[in-house]
TrEMBL record:
This is DUF418 domain-containing protein. Keywords: Membrane, Transmembrane, Transmembrane helix. The chain crosses the membrane at residues 12-34, 46-75, 87-104, 132-152, 197-217, 229-250, 262-289, 309-328, 340-358. It comes from the Bacteria. PANTHER family: INNER MEMBRANE PROTEIN. Pfam families: DUF418 (PF04235). Residues 240-374 form the DUF418 domain.
Amino acid sequence: MFKQREPSIDALRAFALFGILVVNLPFFAITYGFAGGVWQDATPLWANVIAAGVIQGLFESKFILIFSALFGFAAFQQFQRYGLSFYIRRLVVLALFGVVNLTLLFEADILLPYAVIGLLLVFVRNHSVRSLLTYAIGLWAWAVIGNALFGVNMTVNPVPYVAPDIPVSEVLASGSFVDVMAIRLDSWSGFQLYCLWSNYLLVAAAMCGGLAAARYCDALGFDVLIGRLRLIASFAVIPAILGSVVYGVLAALPASAEPERFFMMALILRPLFAVPLSLVLVSVAMWGFMSRSCNGLTSFIAPAGRMSLTIYLGMSLIMGFVFFGYGAGLHNQVSLVDCLWISLVMYLGWVVFAQVWFRGASRGPLEWILTLLTRPGSRRIEVSVSSS
């Protein structure tokens, strides 16, 4: 499909990493992140409400879908260049990285789910673009329904809250590595239960969409694919923005506004508008990354997209040492507003690190390990644009 790496794809992957960081960092910095109520104790409240609305309306679920679509896009190239056995080996190694991540660093790991959901692509890899898009739309609809059913189940069968002997916030702020790990593992099971209703269905939908985009690109060319994406985004932009703004407002309501009144509406709006806004974000980002006026920006962030595995795990490692008790212990000492600028600074640091790293290396450190363990053997002349 490509005779060399496509910088705009690498830049898009790096762009997705920023969005993922913005969503993940609050869960390290503040107990239960923007999903809890601790962030509302910071002042001024109005500024943190706006920050919560921005994070949930613009970032939550959107950038993980972009990342998932890129996974499906790269999978097509891996099937073509290296074959099925390589792809399976890659999934196994990603699963191992995921187990390490969720055990030691962050319970909301995406690598293990990617490895499991990625198996779906094995069975549909030769299906037509139309069929793949049908699967993607069906999974999207299923995710919306699943989120609604999750809300109904939570309402009908509420789980009583049992306060731990030691508050979670205290353990995260001052506990040892083992103490924090125990809290993370305990949270993992509950998080997975929710994800099965909606999040993983959205991820599967995006992977199928990414695979469909790759097949379409292979048949008609990259420029045609981008043109079609822009056309779709032009129809989706208004409802995507309006729906996401409404979701962000409802999801960020402070306790005094009784947000539970809008619980079901917010649950439905999140997956419903995450997909179209993701498409719009990809269209706008690719327009920028492919334009001559943004060549400098593309060249600046693209290397970070080439080492996305290293950066994804590295972000969790650094955030753990900054915010948890086994490190600096800054947990609950920053606000959601602070989380936004900290995310930007940390992201720029990783972008600069990638620039420096690739002056003397062809792969990121974890990408090198991934390549070593999967042992790819090229069968074609095209060069994959995947993160490895």
